[in-house]
Model the fold of this input.
Amino acid sequence: MNRKKKKEIGNLIKKKSLWGLWGCILLILLVSSCFLFSGTWVIIYEVEDANIHPSQSFYKFTVDLTEEDIWKDHKDDIDDIADISFTFKLANTGDDTLTGRVYVSSDSVLADTAAVKSSATIILDGITVASGDTLQMTLAHYYDLLQNFDTLKNLVKSGKFTAYAIVPNAPNDMEFFDVIVVVTISGGL
Done:
């Protein structure tokens, strides 16, 4: 085979290799396009202790995600609220073991326990704190007690909701503090 023929065959192989390489790159881009046009963001919302308001037999606080930069940047792109979690501390300063529940609502002005129980949705039930103890609500404990997740997701989608922690003898025998709400959102870019 002469030199000219070898060069033509070599050029043809190079062209086919380049087309194959470009084809592979295009295929990879098409397959992974969902990763190029979507994202997941985490908002860590710390509730200031001063914003946790005690009332007769409950504490309440409002979570306003609309003031968070991540929410502002991506609110129009949200496809799903992938996860919501709460961590907090409860200190029982009384003489008896106390049990509690956490409710959520879009209504931030529920005035008493009866209104909370009839109008809000329970998300955590079975919280127990022995006399003189402090409970750190860990994520594992939170997920064990979690109820009505879909309702909570719908409230979070609005960007603002109020949580009510109902504990007998609150605020006299119970302190509720160090509240952190973690929201994971996903959506298109």
Remarks:
- Strands lie at 38-47, 53-55, 58-64, 78-92, 98-105, 121-129, 134-137, 160-166, 174-188.
- Residues 1-36 form one domain.
- The two ends are 56 Å apart (CA to CA).
